[in-house]
Specification:
By secondary structure, this protein is mainly α. It is built from 5 helices and no strands.
């Protein structure tokens, strides 16, 4: 009853499960560490560039925004970094300029909320 094909399939399946759960596979852990290191370095470069672009007050305001709405702050940072890379910024961004940029972004992305009320009708009610 020892089928070599069946045993081979079992071995492959066992290796797949071990790789999936990270058991006995040190290469997977090293790869994750490398990815985390690359992410950390990219974030450090990003923060360094922002510190060169923004004034102290603007950096503080952006940090406060990031506490409340991280995705909005990330979007503003992306806009600022893109402008700096394209050479559109001639001096450090002041707090007033950051506020005007935030207002422009808010006007572009303002969401209209719509509320619809649907009342349930009881089975016993009569529409006559």
């Amino acid at each position: 009853m020892d089928d070599p094909e069946l045993e081979e399939i079992r071995q492959r399946r066992m290796q797949e499960l071990m790789a999936k759960h990270g058991v006995g596979n040190q290469h997977n852990g090293e790869q994750k560490n490398g990815q985390e290191e690359a992410k950390r370095e990219a974030e450090e470069r990003r923060q360094l560039m922002l510190s060169q672009i923004l004034s102290t007050q603007a950096r503080e305001r952006l940090a406060r925004i990031a506490l409340v709405k991280p995705e909005k702050a990330r979007g503003v940072e992306d806009v600022l970094l893109r402008a700096a890379q394209m050479g559109q910024l001639s001096e450090k961004v002041s707090e007033e300029r950051l506020i005007s940029l935030l207002e422009q972004i808010n006007n572009q992305t303002s969401k209209q909320t719509k509320v619809t009320i649907q009342r349930r009708r009881s089975v016993l009610e009569d529409d006559d």
